Amino acid sequence: MTLLPKSLFARLFLLITLAVIVAVVLFGMIFRQDRASLIARNFTDAKIQQIEAVRERFANAPDDRGVTLLAIGKEFNVLTVPVDRRPDIGKLPGPAFRQIVDKLQETLGKDTEIRWGTRLDQAIVWIRMPVGADKTRAVWAGFPLRNMDAAEFPMRLALSMGAIGLALLAATLLFARRLTRPLSELSNAVAMVADGKRPEALPETGPSEIAEVSRNVNKMAANLAQLETDRKTMLAGISHDIRTPLARLRLASEISVTEKKSRDDMNADIDEIDRIVTQFLDFARGEPAEPPHPTRVDEALSHIAAKAEALGLPVTWMNEAPNVAHALTIHVFPAAFERMLINLIENAHRYGKPPVELTALRDGEYVEITVIDHGLGVSAADAVRLKQPFVRGDLARGGHMGAGLGLAIVERLAKWHNGHFDIARRAGGGNAARIRLPVQTS
Fold first, then answer.
1. How wide is the angle at C-alpha 261 spanned by C-alphas 260 and 264, nearest 5°?
2. Domain carrying residue 419
3. Residue 355: is the preceding peptide bond cis (ω within 30°)?
């Protein structure tokens, strides 16, 4: 079973190809058997009478050896070869010619030796016949069968079968591809749904089973798209309804709370609630709201480092490090790309330990953008778990508010850019949050 190809198309093509090969081989065997029967039918009574006449002449031939044998051969238009010169001529007839052999031996005697051979692509039936009264002398009499190659396939048959086989294989390839194309489209559509994307509507044609599955996948995609729309509408409404009282609370704290520390604490809590609402909205977005743009890595990271500094999140852009990706170009959604890295820098400050560093190195056809902190770091199990939505680490639960969406948002935004995100503990301590993005090649 391990030798079978994995795809349905390959298995279907292999199955039909084997069937075609078996059909062609059986056709050839049947043709050869029919050809042998045709040759047997050519051994008419007249042919048998000719063979008997030749044998009679050889039996009554005078003892002058080669001259007489050659003359008899010319008289009856047969080939003559003395047995003492060629004891083993031609080859024994196969099972396909058993009918001819039986017919000849029935007339000439059961002990008559019969061989088959070819001469200039012409089939020859060799029959051993005694010469003269001396039973020790014998001759091979060869009877040509014009345009009948009984020993092997003629070239025309081989070419015809080859052409038929190629035509059948081409038709098999077309049929298998046409039959499995809806399954390929269905697989691609399901993969897009699994990635959170909405595929184009599948054609609801073809075999009834595949058409029914395509119809259900279209319904599923439409329902998921409607659920996504409803979710974004609901979250947008919630965020609006929450931010309105937050604005009133902020204003009330400025007016009513006289103690500066209490007022600052209230404003910090209000800012944290607003940040959580923003994270909900970022996570709820199903697709970018802007087209991608080619962007130089060094310019984009310099801008992000400056913006993080303005937000009170100092980060060191290691643009002088060895192998740094300076002039590389990547395709990014600008706002999403910025949100992705700001989230990582903010996460490094909140749950790690300064200094926070930003690096970009080339790795083949990818660029690796890494945010490094010097905190305690996360375990391998937490590194996977923290990329899931609404999951927070132990340190985060200890003293920081949050919705547990920061790294989940980064994971989603990295997929938008056809990239990959991972986070791991560094050997020297702290975390390395790494994003791999494909480099633009043209």
1. 85
2. 293-438
3. yes
The 3-class secondary structure across 118-160, one letter per residue, is ECCCCEEEEEEEECCCCCCCEEEEEEEECCCCCCCCCHHHHHH
**Which own/partner pairs from 272-277 qualify as long-range (CB within 8 Å, at least 24 positions apart)?**
272/401, 272/402, 273/242, 273/246, 274/243, 274/246, 276/401, 276/402, 276/403, 277/238, 277/239, 277/242, 277/243
3 state DSSP class of 63: coil
Q: Does residue 277 share a domain with residue 320?
A: no
Total number of domains constituting the chain? 3
Helices 208-256 and 155-194: crossing angle in degrees, nearest 10, is 20
Asked if 83 and 128 touch (Cβ cutoff 8 Å), the reply is yes
The tokens of 70 are what? 């050659």
Domain CATH code at residue 115: 3.30.450.300
Q: How far apart are CA 156 and CA 31, in angstroms?
A: 13
State the Cα–Cα distance between residues 174 and 16, nearest whole angstrom: 11
Q: What angle do CA 343, 376, 410 make, to 5 degrees?
A: 20
Q: Are 68 and 61 in contact (CB under 8 A)?
A: yes
Q: Rounded CA gap, 392 and 384, in Å?
A: 12
Does the pTM surpass 0.85? The reply is: no
Q: For residue 66, what are its two tokens?
A: 């080669």
What is the identity of the amino acid at 33? Q
Other CB atoms within a 10 A radius of the CB of residue 324 amount to 17
Closest-CA residue to 366 (of 299, 295, 412, 435):
435
Domain boundary among 284, 302, 335: 284
Tens digit of pLDDT at every position of the chain (442 positions): 456 666 666 767 777 777 777 777 777 776 666 665 666 565 666 777 888 888 888 888 775 555 677 788 888 888 888 888 888 888 888 776 677 788 788 888 888 888 888 777 677 889 989 888 766 788 899 888 755 444 444 565 667 677 777 877 777 777 777 767 777 777 788 787 777 677 788 887 766 777 787 888 888 888 877 877 777 777 777 766 777 787 888 788 878 777 888 888 788 778 777 766 766 666 666 566 678 889 998 899 999 999 899 888 999 998 766 666 667 889 888 888 888 898 899 889 988 888 999 999 988 889 999 999 998 888 777 777 777 765 555 544 344 544 556 788 888 888 888 899 998 888 878 899 999 999 887 5
In the block, tokens 């024994």 appear at: 92
Could you tell me the sign of the dihedral formed by the alpha carbons of 302, 305, 309, 310, in that order? positive
